[in-house]
Task: structure prediction
Amino acid sequence: MQYKILIVEDETDISRLLKKILTAAGYLVQQAFSGTEAKLLLERETPDLILLDLMLPGLSGEALLLEIRSTFQSNIPVLILSARSSLEDKVTLLKTGADDYITKPFEPEEVTARIQAALRRTGQAPAAPKVLSHKNLQLFPDSRKAVVNDMELSLTAHEYEILLLFLQTPEKVYSRELLYELIWQGGYYGENNTVNVHVSNLRKKLKEADPEEDYIQTVYGIGFKLC
Ligand code: CA
Result:
């Protein structure tokens, strides 16, 4: 099944770019160019997820979000798109009922990763392939199993999620902060060492199962990726 995503964004260039990114990722896309247009559309249809800009002509993104939560299908995941990046705005919006926040300018991989994470959180996970593999590692999303050289790894839920994210987007370098936000879902990363500890444990387990290969690469000054 294909997921339907509504983009609410008045800047046509950004809307067109998002449409391109999402279509390439296999989603069906609808566009609304004002809050009012989005509202009319939502009276007729129910998308699986909404990307919502805040600064919109007429009905603002904030006002539309309140309407979505009170009037329409209240559980649709809503991801805010905005140039604003202050923590205060972010916290306020998450309290108002937004599921996540994408700050412009954005990278295509970040948009799709956040959408996948939001759909997964709301139990509408996109149809996952039966097996993801890399070198001697195989991941079975249906059963959440990770197997290396025919031996099942004993992973924590978070370790599994990190590995799944890496295998879904093999080229992507994840900063510690982005990994934290995607896997631990919200909260402020701050100075905490959680991601390092989990990646280090994950590496240890992979190394034990497959001493010959490296699976997770540290990208100096940025974060981690599959290698
Ligand atoms: Ca705008």
Remarks:
- DSSP finds eight helices and twelve strands in the chain.
